[in-house]
Amino acid sequence: MLFGYFVLALLPILWLIVAMSVIKMQAWTAALTAMVIAFVEAMVFWHASFLSATTSVAEGVVMALWPIVLVIIAAIFVYNMTVHTGAMDVIKSQLTSVSNDRRVLAILIAWCFGGFMEGMAGYGTAIAIPASMMFALGFNPVEAILMCLVGARCHGGVPRADPPGRGLYDHLSVRHRHHRGRRAQGPQGHGAHHPDCRCVVLSAGVHRRKVHGTDPARHRGRGRL
Predict the structure, then answer these.
(1) What is the pLDDT of residue 33?
(2) Which of 2, 74, 123, 177 is the most buried (most CB within 10 A)?
């Protein structure tokens, strides 16, 4: 039963792979079809309500357009600008002047330049742009993509530039979770579980005291938990 649900959850991804690699379907058509498959599965097999499934689709579309597509468009714009101005030819000539060894070029482009693209944009640009450069230098397309995929996983922890408004969104999300947790605790037990509270054991007994903005190490001599 669980394996069947696993296959059903994997079906939209499998459809994307087959549609774009075997059927040669356009990306936006395959993506819309995968969205319809996931929508039908959510309502039929997981018994999701129509409102819940619709809002999930809307959230996915908004999240795809705002952080991902925005950053990819900016990265492609920068890449096209470097190609138009001739700076990309300078980069290619500098990379090829280092060594004629294909292994060294693969490390420089897939790992080093790919790491730069991951830190600047992310969201697949560290694979698409270096792979196109390697293909222009004579690498096999499949080998170039595989090397860039491996390189992207190696430097996947590199911080990337966030889109505008991302910091405000994260800040509001943290505040929302914090206030929701306070409401769930209720009026009792609030002081015991609040992150600003410290339990200090004194010689006269056990007292609960609130400590604001202080280092717990400064109170280490007054008692221990």
Answers:
(1) 95
(2) 123
Place of tokens 């004629």: 100
CA–CA gap between residue 30 and residue 67 (Å, rounded): 21
Q: What is the pLDDT, as a whole number, of residue 57?
A: 93
Instruction: Give the closest residue to 42 by CA, choosing from 11, 70, 75.
Output: 11
Confidence of residue 174 (pLDDT cuts 50, 70, 90): low
Choose among 10, 24, 128: nearest CA to 80.
128
| Rounded Cα gap, residues 5 and 219, in angstroms | 53
CA distance 8 to 31: 16
d(CA 73, CA 55): 26
Phi and psi for 76 in degrees, rounded to 5?
Answer: -65, -35
Closest CA to 105 of 49, 36, 38, 151: 151
Contact 209, 225 (CB under 8 A): no
DSSP conformation letters of 52-76: HHHHHHHHHHHHIIIIIIHHHHHHH
